[in-house]
Design goal:
Strand content: under 5%
Shape: globular
Number of domains: 1
CATH architecture: Orthogonal Bundle
CATH topology: Proton glutamate symport protein
Number of helices: 11
Order of helices and strands: HHHHHHHHHHH
Largest sheet: none
Main location: membrane
Structural class: mainly alpha
InterPro entries: Na-dicarboxylate_symporter, Na:dicarbo_symporter_sf
Membrane topology: Multi-pass membrane protein
Organism: Sphingomonas sanguinis
Pfam families: SDF
Length: 247
């Protein structure tokens, strides 16, 4: 336990250094991209941002409702309960920062027992990253390949799928998706300079990505608890006290 506590302290300190240096590195990548490609090149990012948000919208408003309906759950009730957490994720851009609100929505509003949600929701906050690690790196790889005029083959698309799926389970619930982006580009052999180009609008995209992440982090524990027979028909917070019957 002492060794683990010491290792945790070391990694936290290293992480703090990385977080402090990230703005400098991001600024350097962005400046290099502007000098090399000019402001005209940045206009192409508008179509890229639109494509990302279309993908996020399809997941949030098509894929997730279909999963809920397939498991006998009401999409209307789910979104009414999870919307505060989704909104906070959109503003905060951090799944970890939204975690208390997500847990509250899953437990009190959706009726998932705390004995399960206390494990499932934090676990999902670091493994269920549909926005940051699945949708965004895949579209980014396609954009960078098209921008530099590099052809992609069937094997490249398979690699994109594998990296996106595996990466979604290994992404920290913090702001940004630079790690997954560079991992995807390097795996496909695409220029890493493309990451500097995409960082110009990353905060705007990160808001939508985090909202999708939070929605998925509430969705999966709810579905699993329902299929396991753990979920209650009425959320605990909404139950009315029993009124004794009088003769």
């Amino acid at each position: 336990l002492s060794f683990n506590a010491s290792a945790l302290a070391i990694f936290r300190r290293i992480l703090s250094w990385v977080i402090r240096l990230t703005p400098l590195g991001s600024g350097a990548l962005l400046g290099n991209a502007i000098v090399r490609y000019g402001w005209q090149s940045l206009s192409a990012l508008g179509s890229f941002a639109l494509a990302v948000y279309i993908g996020l919208g399809l997941v949030l408003f098509v894929v997730y409702p279909l999963l809920l309906l397939a498991n006998g759950l009401s999409p209307k009730r789910f979104y009414a309960a999870a919307w505060p957490a989704i909104q906070l994720g959109f503003v905060s851009r951090s799944s970890i920062a939204t975690l208390p609100v997500t847990e509250d929505a899953v437990e009190r509003r959706l009726g998932v027992p705390r004995a399960y949600s206390a494990f499932a929701v934090p676990f999902a906050a670091t493994t269920k990253m549909d926005g940051c690690a699945a949708i965004y790196p895949a579209i980014s790889a396609l954009f960078v390949a098209q921008y530099y005029g590099l052809p992609l083959h069937v094997g490249d698309y398979v690699l994109i799928v594998l990296v996106s799926v595996l990466g979604s389970a290994a992404t920290a619930g913090l702001t940004g998706a630079v790690v997954m982006l560079t991992l995807t580009l390097s795996t496909l052999g695409l220029p890493l300079e493309g990451a500097g180009l995409l960082l110009a609008i990353d905060p705007i995209l990160d808001m939508g990505r985090t909202a999708i992440n939070v929605a998925g982090q509430a969705l999966v524990p709810t579905i699993v608890a329902h299929r396991a027979g753990l979920i209650t028909d009425t959320p605990p917070a909404d139950r009315l006290p029993e009124v004794p019957q009088t003769g």
